[in-house]
């Protein structure tokens, strides 16, 4: 009986897969986008309420302008592919948070935050497009959903995610926060690095469609590499590829991205 249950669970999980746009990679998908978007909207508002959000000025306007152009690029791409349904439930928001963190992120449903600390590294509009294109790519590639699905499956919850959300919202919230953040278990690190590389790939294409020069991604990561220098952890202990690996991969992907690029 236990073998039959395990087999049935394996078959259900195997069937619960989706495909990442552009790359075509198959990914585990046990959590509905509606559930992810709802949780993201709630957590995003909590972040904004507890942060110093800049709503006026040149930098805030820059974040909204770059975000809006990449949003349009993503929507254009999905529309051309006949996959606009994948963006259902998106309620895009782009906010600048006054904070020294050199960071930015995008939660499911298009909830974007850029920290002011990263702006000296992005330097200009094109540099910011590299970062925002990458972070938005994480969302549209459903990386958080994939990571949460993996965590739920590892806990033996299988496809009963909606039940878990209803019965234990606190625990489910913790799993969600881990999924949209950075995992700390070495066993999941390769999975995280693969997602990072995929977001680089998609981000290049989205920024190019938006009219930003994808070649700027190399310069951005070179600046990031120079800033981090020897402070970076070894690649095998990092959820991100090393900057050297990332730059080399981006250079290989630039010919494809340039096909989408028309300067504005």
Question: How many β-strand runs?
Answer: 6
Number of helices: 11
Helix content: 55-70%
Along the chain, the helix and strand elements come as HEEHEHEEEHHHHHHHH
Structural class determined from secondary elements: alpha+beta
- β content, as a range? 5-15%
Q: What is the residue-averaged pLDDT?
A: 81
In one word, what is the shape?
A: globular
Largest sheet: 4 strands, mixed
Report strand order across the widest sheet: 3-4-6-5
Note poorly predicted spans.
Answer: 1-15, 182-191
Measured distance between first and last alpha carbons: 63 Å
Radius of gyration: 19 Å
Give an overview of the whole structure.
With 264 residues, this protein is of the alpha+beta class. The protein has 11 helices and 6 strands. The protein has a 4-stranded mixed beta sheet with strand order 3-4-6-5, with helices on both faces. Strands 1-2 form a two-stranded antiparallel sheet. Strand 5 and strand 6 form a beta hairpin. The longest helix is centred in the N-terminal third of the chain and has 23 residues. The protein starts with a helix and ends in a 6-residue tail after the last helix. The N terminus is likely disordered.
């Amino acid at each position: 009986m236990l073998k039959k249950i395990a087999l049935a669970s394996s078959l259900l999980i195997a069937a619960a897969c989706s495909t990442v746009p552009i790359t075509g990679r198959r990914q585990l998908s046990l959590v509905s986008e509606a559930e992810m978007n709802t949780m993201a909207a709630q957590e995003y508002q909590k972040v904004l309420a507890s942060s110093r959000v800049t709503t006026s000025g040149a930098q805030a306007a820059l974040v909204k302008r770059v975000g809006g152009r990449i949003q349009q690029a993503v929507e254009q791409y999905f529309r051309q592919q006949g996959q606009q349904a994948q963006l259902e439930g998106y309620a895009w928001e782009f906010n600048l948070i006054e904070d020294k963190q050199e960071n930015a992120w995008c939660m499911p449903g298009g909830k974007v935050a850029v920290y002011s600390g990263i702006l000296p590294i992005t330097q200009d509009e094109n540099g910011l497009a590299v970062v925002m294109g990458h972070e938005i790519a994480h969302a549209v590639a459903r990386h958080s959903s994939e990571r949460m699905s993996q965590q739920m499956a590892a806990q033996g919850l299988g496809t009963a995610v909606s039940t878990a959300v209803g019965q234990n919202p606190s625990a489910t919230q913790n799993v969600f926060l881990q999924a949209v953040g950075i995992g700390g278990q070495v066993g999941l690190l390769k999975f995280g690095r693969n997602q990072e590389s995929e977001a680089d790939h998609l981000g290049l294409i989205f920024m190019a469609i938006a009219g930003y020069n994808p070649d700027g991604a190399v310069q951005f990561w070179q600046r990031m590499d120079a800033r981090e220098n020897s402070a970076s952890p070894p690649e095998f202990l990092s959820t991100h590829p090393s900057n050297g690996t990332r730059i080399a991969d981006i250079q290989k992907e630039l010919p494809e991205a340039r096909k989408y690029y028309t300067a504005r």
